[in-house]
Amino acid sequence: MVVNAESSIESLTHNELVDIFMGRYRTFPNGRSVTVYENASDQQVREAFYRSLVNRNLAQVNAYWARLQFSGRVRQPEEIRNLESLSERIGSTPSAISFVRSSDVTEKMKVVHRFDL
Amino acid sequence: MLLCLSLLLPWSEVALAEPDVKFSGFGNIGVIHNDSRVLGFHRDYTMEASGHGWSANVDSMMGLQLNARFNNHFDAMVQVLLMDRVSDDLEDALEWAFIRYQPNEQWSFRAGRLGLDLYMLSEYKDVSYAYLWARPVPEFYSVISSTTRYNGLDITYSRHLNDYMFEARLAYGNNNSDLAGADQTVNIELDAIGALTLSLSSHDWLWRLAFARSDISGNNPEADALLSMIESVPATLWPAGRSIAADIRYKNRISEYYAAGARYDSGHWLIQSELGYTDTNWQPLQPYISGYISIGRRVEDFTFYGVYAGVRHTENTPEVEPPLIQPFLPPEQQMQLSALHQAAEHAYQSSRQQQHTFSAGVRWDFAEDFALKLQWDYVNIGDQGSALWVREAPESQDQRVQLFSINLSFVF
Q: Which superkingdom is the protein from (chain A) (predicted)?
């Protein structure tokens, strides 16, 4: 789990990540607003991420988001289909959060949680 | 509507930033086979019914949505839903259109066109991709979901309670809808709707309680004609006539609704159940209870499910006192009186729902953002209990109806 390298967030718990990634909270625990970027560059890491986070497959996660999105509750996170643009976006967005493989972490990112996949 | 609302809001704050706009949509292409020759099926009363044979009109629909975020506290949403409605009015295709103000994580205020949050699927009942079944369970959803879209406001408060998220929502507004009743089309007006919803959700669980009350009036030319005919009968011929007409008159009635629901989703098992009770002081719609239980089992990309649902009245239909037999009246007038009596009796019975259904189906998530669903419904209808259907003739009755449906649901 990575945030903008300059972010004041140092670490996040599993439950805090669920709140943020499942659209329950729009802010970090410290009250700062959060911008979720969905790493759509790598289906495998995405599948594994949601499996570790909420024990659901992608179809279930998508159906869950359809409920939130089309009822106007929360907007679905923006999907970024390319790893380089993801790194750019995280670097240019102070409130950014996303998930990447540990081998894909760049200097623009700060690791705040690790899942053993 | 939106324009008026915007005057109430601190617009200068809204206009601070260039809005961030997102377009999205959802849809369903569905065909259904109805084996009844006399009862037409519809998902709810706002839609036209489809009779015997195959039809693509029952479940096919398409929703288009625009979300705009102005800043961290203000956003807006508009959603248009295209389907085979009773009403041809373009405004009725507007499913959602609201401005929302969220000062912090706890509070949220919305104004515009909204949906009453009275049942589990209230916010996505037409987003087929978002749920398991071919459509919301008719016994539980058909009546109540026909009138829950409204113009007004709501306030939501939410907070963490240990591992649970607690949410309370208060709503106020009014609505007006053209509905395909069992025998005739009727326009229903709900005024001063008030609704309270409480919910508690965790990772796997969702618990809900809802309560609503509303002033309710119905407009229907055929019913009005019947009423004026009953009222024109002299009291000497039909002493109870006036009070019967007063009972049938659908003006300024009060309706109350109570619902409870629970859902458990472990990822492998998906169990969901809801119970509802409707009470009203309009005689022809006697109090009724409805509910269902649905059990689903996920196996990789397939979810197999079964549903049992039922609806029934909790009171018997009141007796309609007949006109007095007057041997001196010409036979023609006697016939007319007895026809009026029959029509009044029918008015008392026409809204009766008495049925239970067994359903079985499978949902296959065969590609990202697409799902294919097959469902079979076996419906048992009680005597004079077919008000969830559109009848070919007022006395049409079928004890058993089977529905088979195939749906392709998607989001984009």
A: Bacteria
The widest CA-to-CA distance across chain B, in whole angstroms, is 83
C-alpha count within 13 angstroms, C-beta hemisphere, residue B112: 22
Nearest residue, CB atoms, A67 vs list B102, B130, B301: B130
Model pLDDT for residues B273-317, shown as the tens digit of each residue: 999 999 988 877 889 999 999 999 999 999 999 999 999 999 888
pTM: 0.89
Q: Flag if A66 and B69 touch (Cβ within 8 Å).
A: no
Extract the residue ranges of chain A whose pLDDT is less than 70: none
The whole-number pLDDT of residue B6 equals 43
* Statement: residue B27 has pLDDT above 80: yes
| Higher pLDDT pick, B26 / B224 | B26
Q: What angle separates helix B221-232 from helix B241-248, to the nearest 10 degrees?
A: 160
- B72/A75 Cβ within 8 A: no
- pLDDT attached to residue B407: 98
Tell me whether A13 touches chain B (CB under 8 Å): no
Q: Do A33 and B203 touch (CB under 8 A)?
A: no
Query: Is B13's pLDDT higher than 50?
Result: no
Q: What is the mean pLDDT of residues B187-196?
A: 95
* Any B CB within 8 A of A76 CB: yes
Question: Residue B260: is it exposed, middle or buried by C-beta count within 10 angstroms (0-12/13-18/19+)?
Answer: middle
Q: What is the pLDDT of residue B105?
A: 85
Give the ranges where B200-240 is alpha helix by DSSP (H): 221-232
As a whole-number percent, the residues of chain B with pLDDT over 70 amount to: 96
pLDDT in tens, B242-252: 888 888 888 88
Distances (CA, A) of A117 to A47, A56, A80: 10, 14, 21
Query: What are the sequence ranges of the domains in chain B?
Result: 2-7+20-411
Residues B362 and B364: their CA atoms lie apart, in Å, by 6
CATH topology of domain B2-7+20-411: Porin (2.40.160)
Using a CB–CB cut-off of 8 Å, the residues of B that contact A are 22, 24, 26, 63, 65, 67, 69, 72, 77, 79, 96, 98, 100, 102, 105, 115, 123-124, 127, 129-131, 163, 165, 203, 267, 298, 301, 365, 368-369, 371, 411
Q: Using CA atoms, how far apart are residues B359 and B309, in angstroms rounded to an integer?
A: 8
Which residue ranges form the domains of chain A, and what is each CATH number?
Answer: 2-111 (3.40.190.10)
- Give the residue on A whose Cα is nearest the Cα of B109: A73
Mean of the per-residue pLDDT values of chain B: 90
Element (H, E) at B406: strand B400-411
